[in-house]
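Hi! If you just cloned this repository, the fastest way to understand the data is to look at a raw example. We've pasted two of them here, unedited. The first protein comes first, obviously.
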Amino acid sequence: MMYLVGAGGFGRETLDALLATLGAPLDPTSGTVAFLDEGLSGQQVRGLPVHPMDHPARGDHVVVAIAAPAVRRRLAGVCSAAGLVPRTVVHPASVIGPETTLGQGCVVLALAHVSSSVTIGDHVQINYNVSIGHDCVLADFVTVLPGANVSGAVRLEEGATVGAGAVVLPGLTVGAGAMIGAGAVVTKDVAPGRTVKGVPAS
């Protein structure tokens, strides 16, 4: 059984990627895919049931499809404690270069291009139309939002977020928990926990 944690916008986008990997429409009555979401429990989303977090059995597969890194980290911990197995979902219309590794519980959406020799940690989200350059390192719980361009040899530390349409220039480090604003151009290292925006980002 496969569960998607979060039945909101990113949860539905993750479902799209999962369905694309299957190569065929999903029968909602098959009982093979469902959502977990306390707020929407008991409802249906895209024809699939939404269950509370305590519904799955140990050994079931799960992907945490929550955009906020802190919430994703917390729910990944809940799933791990319950004995659920994290699964990575990669849309077949994305590109993953050679010698690139992805951790557990990641999501890569359509038209993302991840170059060669990239190291990606656990529970990382790479949205649609994102480019990740060669030799980058994305630590656990990183989020790269739609249309962002992360140049080669960049390091994104744990829980960092790169906003939609932002650019991070080569060789820089974005610290843990930092936030890059939408459309920003990052020209120097970003300290942990800091929010930067603008061109150049500051």
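Ok, and the second one:
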Amino acid sequence: MEGGLIFMSFLTVLLVAVFFAAWKAPRWVKEIGAFALVAGFLSFILGLRRLFSTLQQVAMANDSVSGIFDLISPGVFFGGIKVGLIPVIYGIFIYLVSLVVRVIQKPRL
């Protein structure tokens, strides 16, 4: 939930899709994992955009661009970035799972 309901739900669907593809469509496993990785980074980029837009509105309302940390606590700012990284970590995890599944599925020589 902390990483954002929409992207975290989407990434969970992709994780389930990796295991389903391992069973039904093995060639898609790596691609689904790569898609999860990109979706995690996209979530972070969109979150940063929203963060900077909010900071801009706060700065414009108070006529202070240089003293933004006087208006907003650095703990809150960096806590938001920490929460924004959760989908990225989840996307990386799904990508690693897809690579492990792909290695397990490869035929032995």
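That's it. A detail worth noticing about the second one: The two ends are 43 Å apart (CA to CA).
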